[in-house]
């Protein structure tokens, strides 16, 4: 019973470790989206754009006119002492609604710009993460090779002491070791630099710990991505186009009269020389006004501007779709290439390991040249490094494909 419980606990620990590695990138993406100033700026621009709708959809401010007579004008009911006029203009029916709709569409375009900035950041984060993975795993391979070279040196030294091989074999191993040690030191410095750059990208302390898993997990579909309607760069242009089409209708409304309603109030003083009916009663007069949009050139130009902008946005959208389609084709090829190279390197590493064992056995029995052993070991090292690079390239390509096949899963309340 205890054995079964131990196995269950061990399985859970291994599962949690795997899930933890898979979640590392997602955690970094979350930190980047919350901290990166470029993403913050894009979202702030969206919030600022939201404030445009209340501005353009409000009524014009009313006009209040006050006048006092230096020399009072006499009327039948008394002298006019002061006069107040209040006027409120109203745009043609539906004008403010169209203005609000245009502003909201432009705000939606800004939100899509924010999504695009965020997704571009995610691609950068994944690329930097992959670079750190490349360096760390290359260092592991080099450390393992350093141990192999130590074993080769010991073997060559034993053969020399036995008088069956020259001392030059030991010297050759020392040369390879010195070269490898230098590469390791340089790569360690590169690793620290990459980690600092990664933390800068996340806008956090440069000394913060960066952990990378043992594997680069990605799941990208190889094939043509034909539908880009949900992509932020396309959605932004679509919202802009709708806004310009709305501006066409708005230009027609702007060419219609504005209506004004108001009231005129005059303060009348009482007559002292007579007492007519309603003596000294103030005068109230309702007013109605209409603007006369007789200068039509500006309204015609505004409509033509909106039509041309809508046409240009549609052309820009088609150009962007073509650009994304072309990139998707190349990325699909690059992903297939990376996977084939990984498969090739796996097979070559297996074969090279077998050949290397045979060469070492042959050298131990004085049947093969030590130079061949060193060369085969060097080839094996390069194959392992090339496999790591192919994995990294595949991961970067998959990240870019994820960006192209964007599906907006952002919560509506975000």
Automatic annotation (TrEMBL):
Pfam families in the cross-refs: OEP (PF02321)
Endpoints of the signal sequence: 1-22
Key words of the record: Coiled coil, Signal
Keyword tRNA-binding recorded: no
Parts forming coiled coils: 177-204, 296-341
GO molecular function terms listed in the Swiss-Prot or TrEMBL record: efflux transmembrane transporter activity
Similarity remark: Belongs to the outer membrane factor (OMF) (TC 1.B.17) family.
Protein name: Outer membrane protein TolC
Organism in which the protein naturally occurs: Christiangramia gaetbulicola
Source taxonomy: Bacteria, Pseudomonadati, Bacteroidota, Flavobacteriia, Flavobacteriales
């Amino acid at each position: 019973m205890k054995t079964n419980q131990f196995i269950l606990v061990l399985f859970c620990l291994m599962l949690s470790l795997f899930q933890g590695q898979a979640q590392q990138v997602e955690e970094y993406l979350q930190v980047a989206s919350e901290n990166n100033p470029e993403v913050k700026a894009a979202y702030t621009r969206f919030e600022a754009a939201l404030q445009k709708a209340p501005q353009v959809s409000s009524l014009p401010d009313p006009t209040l006119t006050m006048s006092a007579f230096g020399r009072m004008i006499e009327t039948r009911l008394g002298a006019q002492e002061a006069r107040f006029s209040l006027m409120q203009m109203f745009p043609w029916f539906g004008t403010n609604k169209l203005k609000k709709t245009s502003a909201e569409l432009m705000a939606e375009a800004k939100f899509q710009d924010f999504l695009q900035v965020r997704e571009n950041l995610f691609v950068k984060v994944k690329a930097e993460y992959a670079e750190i993975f490349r360096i760390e795993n290359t260092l592991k391979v080099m450390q393992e090779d350093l141990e192999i070279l130590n074993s080769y040196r010991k073997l060559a030294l034993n053969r020399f002491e036995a008088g069956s091989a020259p001392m030059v074999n030991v010297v050759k191993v020392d040369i390879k070791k010195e070269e490898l040690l230098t590469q390791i030191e340089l790569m360690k410095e590169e690793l620290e630099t990459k980690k600092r750059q990664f933390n800068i990208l996340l806008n956090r302390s440069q000394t913060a710990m960066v952990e990378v898993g043992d594997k680069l997990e990605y799941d990208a579909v190889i094939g043509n991505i034909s539908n880009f309607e949900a992509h932020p760069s396309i959605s932004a242009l679509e919202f802009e186009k709708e806004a310009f089409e709305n501006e066409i209708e708005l230009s027609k409304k702007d060419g219609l009269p504005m209506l004004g309603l108001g009231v005129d109030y005059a303060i009348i003083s009482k007559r002292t020389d007579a007492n007519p009916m309603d003596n000294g009663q103030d005068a109230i007069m309702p007013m109605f006004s209409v603007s006369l949009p007789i200068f039509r050139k500006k309204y015609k130009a505004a409509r033509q501007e909106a039509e041309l902008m809508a046409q240009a946005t549609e052309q820009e959208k088609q150009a962007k779709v073509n650009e994304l389609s072309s990139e998707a084709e190349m990325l699909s090829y690059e992903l297939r290439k990376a996977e084939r190279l990984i498969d090739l390197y796996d097979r070559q590493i297996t074969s090279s390991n077998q050949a290397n064992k045979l060469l070492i056995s042959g050298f131990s029995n004085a049947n093969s040249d030590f130079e061949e052993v060193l060369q085969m070991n060097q080839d094996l090292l390069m194959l392992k490094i090339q496999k790591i690079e192919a994995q990294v390239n595949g991961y970067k390509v998959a990240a870019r494909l994820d960006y192209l096949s964007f599906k907006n899963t952002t919560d509506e309340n975000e």
